[in-house]
Structures
1.
Amino acid sequence: MAATGATSAVDTAAEDRRWLVRALVSRIVLYGFLALTAAFFALPMAWLVLAPFEAHPTLVAGLTDPTLQNFKAMFDNPSVRGSLLNSILLALGTMAVVVASAALAAYALSRARVPGRDVILYILLLFSSVVTGSAAMVPIFLLAYDLHIINTLTGVALVLAGGLLPAAIFILKDFMDSTPASYEESARVFGASPFQILRHIVLPLVRPGLAVIAVWTIVTVWGSFLTPFILLQDPSQQPAAVEIYSFYSAGGTANLRLISTFGLLYTIPVVIMYLVVQNRYGFRFYGGLKR
Amino acid sequence: MLLIGVFLAFPAVWTIYLGLTNFRLLGTAALHSRFVGGENYLNALTGGDFLHSLYITFIYVVFSAVIGQCVLGFTLAWVLRNWRGPIRRGLESLIIVAWIVPGSVVAFLWLAFLQGNIGPLVETGTLNTILGGIGINWWLELPMLSIVVFNIWRGTAFSMLLFGAGLQAIPPSYLETARVAGASTWQMMRDIVIPRSRGHILTNLLLISLWTFNDFTPFLLTGGGPGNQTQFLPVYIYQQAFQQGALGYGAAISTLVLVINLVVALFYMRILRERR
């Protein structure tokens, strides 16, 4: 490396130049890669953002004749309103079941010494990742049929809750473990009942955890397609996920104005909820959003 | 005491209930196939359809999840690791949005983007318009490629986020030392980055392959077609059980898929524990 003599100075300059060229090339490759990636992810999305505001949308993303008429037409469509309402009911119902059961179960698993607790949790988690909606669709259908909860939103909510609970318990137990048990002990000394302790001490302490579970459940249920698709036969009960599919899978000319507006409106809530949670809790992935 | 009673009893009952349901789930499948003996399983394992379906599902998982999502996610996490500011945030948001938009909307977006083959969509999509006169009907002519690309688009966010967290756990001084010692990027990858994020890589592989293996979105995109070229296992189960009405046969395939899921999960967990 040490430079001695007249020729080595020339060598160093040449090496510097080579280094510069290589750095430049790698920069160009890097930016090219990022630009390509951005295009790859943005282009399919462009249609969803532009078409709802287009007076006569085609399948090509573009905005030539902006309008808000499509939204008015969509809100006048009774099946759109009905399915959005179904989605809201389904999401909130499932959320209530999951949050209530997961809070109780996680509290018990976190505080009480249950023999083989970790094994139970481990097996539950394993089951929830292995027994997925698509692998278990036939058994789930038959079970719901036998229990007479087929064709009801309650049934769909229970099935979805069953799939989400193990992961929810797991996450909440982490939150519970990190809160000190001494608060509860002193409350018990002062004669608080178990439910008072739960309501006034434990739940406020783990509120962020509950919020995470709630939002995660809502987002997952909002997008879930297969379970309602199998369990609900009556079109008036379908949530938006299934309804929008029937708009483009049914015969006849697809109503692009309706599909695009409906799709955008249906997508916005999950994106907003995700952003809110990510900003407030820095919660990036506890997995499962896709399931 | 009451406290423990109440809150012990509840999860205990709940666990028993879950155990019961799972038992019954599998029990129903077993019951249905018992009427005909092991015929359903035999049919599935010897008939060509199931094996074909298993084979293309395997291809789908390997190319779109294990290779596509994992490699692209890792590359993005690596390239963006030291970046701050709007470019990184914009790109990350784009990728994450692709991941969280509900499946039935995303499916239509891709049908439109690549010019769909489903009934009413006979116009030209965005991609063919950009490419100019080539006019390939992607979903008809290259269904497998289209669906693999779709799934890479859909799922890369998870790998990117997970690897991003994994790379942050590597002390920067290691990489600086290696750089000063004259190590190439490839050498740093091989000797520092990959060994140190082995846990992240395996977790990621486990989750994305299970998700992709059980993904039902292909049904929304192609319905298994054209022919049976994209008839992945979940689609095959649905068609057999609900469109053909062969619930027993569908249940038998379901059970096989559950077993495969279990084997894959246990396999990865085994490796994960050994490497730790």
2.
Amino acid sequence: MTDTLSTDALTPPKYDKLRRAFFRFRQSKLSLLGGVLVALVLFFTAFGTVLAPYPEHIAGGVDTANRFIAPTWAHPFGTNELGQDVLSLVMAGTTVSVLAGFGVVMIGSIIGTIVGAVAGFAGGWVDEVLMRLTDLTLTIPGLILAMAIAAALGPGFGNMVIAISLSWWPGYARLVRGEVLAAREEVYVTAARAIGATPQRILFRHILPNTVSPIIVKMSLDMGFAILTVAGLGFIGIGVRPPTPEWGTLLSISRSYMPDYWWTAMAPGMAMFVAVFGFNLLGDGLRDVLDPKARR
Amino acid sequence: MPDTTPMLEIENVSKIYPGRRGMFGSSAAVHALTDVSLAVKRGESFGLVGESGSGKTTMTRSILQLETPSAGVIRFMGKDMAQLSAVEMRRLRAKIQIVFQDPYASLNPRMSVHDIVTEPMLIHVETLGLNARQRTDRAAELLSLVGLGPQYLRRYPHEFSGGQRQRICIARALASGPELLLLDEPTSALDVSVQAQVLNLLFELQDKLGLTYFFISHDLAVVRYLCDRVALIYHGKIVEQGSSDEIFDNPKGDYARMLIGAMPEVRVYAE
């Protein structure tokens, strides 16, 4: 029985798989750059508030004697119209922006996955109803819907996340429905049905596990856009309220002092750029590793 | 006294897929099976031979009750399967299992061999009454039975060759203790050398476990090697049915003669 000859000399399968995935990820310099940027952003999400050189400014303290100082060693990104250290504000703002983006992506993907999985798996009129509902949500511009919801619920971190999430899930619903429709026809699903598996078992053991890769890739790619949307809501004034620092709000305030005091706008803008860029590159890299079919 | 009830009886079964009339043209109804009758006896190997699109797959799906026939009755051990309650049907599924053609598609890539082979035991836990420990032991036993060692339990399907995967599929099919095994071209996706190994394995298993095989193939040499009786299906109709020797040595219909004429190896055997 030549085809059963042992291949045990190889490394244990799990590590082997991880190693291979990491190797493929490392092949692309851009993916690595994305990984590093995201690591940096996550580091500031966790420790930004603690590490900020002027913690009193984050809490809303002002120092009017030192307004609009251009970048110096004491204030690498200068100070703003209230004399607050821009670097400290941006570092602390990372927490709010990234957590909000993460919350949006999590809630959006959970709602979308449930809707898409049920629609794709049940088929028939259930599918029809759920997907038309999805299409309906898609026709409403996301930011406007979010503005309406935020206006109805009132400003605040939680409401903002809920507001954006409610316009965020249709993308996931469509993605997951398509993946479920494809996985439903797989031979191993037929095999499971022939064994007598219940629909729940088929959905949760056989279909959904085979749809996670594209969902994770989309989540990573979406993180950047979610952070931008959160900043956008902050920019138009219905996101997080000052004095809580948030990139969009910071940018919105410093708009009035452009171009003379450019540093007040540059720091939050650059932070956003780095975060969005990093998550997009990481998403592309993950797609190459997890979903090789979609590789260009 | 031997039980004379056929294990599987298919009586006048037809399956018609209705045509569609849509905005962009319509399609005619497809008669996948037309008035098919056959009986498979306990312990025998019954071969169903036909070309692509002749209704072989529809036949397996109907036997597994994944499709409802448009007409006719399918009886398993004397019971009309269409009449069974959902619970009875689920219990009966343990007794009819299938091995698919493509071993690359028929194993869930996200499940370990252990999970794949123990799943049928988990689903039929009321009937089989095995706890987690016993299920693992039985999975190891089954793997040894199909010629793979228990050391493969923690592996994932992508780590195996086609022949090994087909062995895993056979182990999974055997896990629920079936009496009838549907073999839907189990070797046609494999290398020729591996084909022989898998066929020998199936042969051995039938001896050891007293299984009944419903063997579907377009490969006449394989069917002749493995099957006691053969039916030829063409465009959804059974055109010839009889013992293997009868059909291969003395084909009556034109289609049978044409098929067998197209098989050089069989002709050499016959002379």
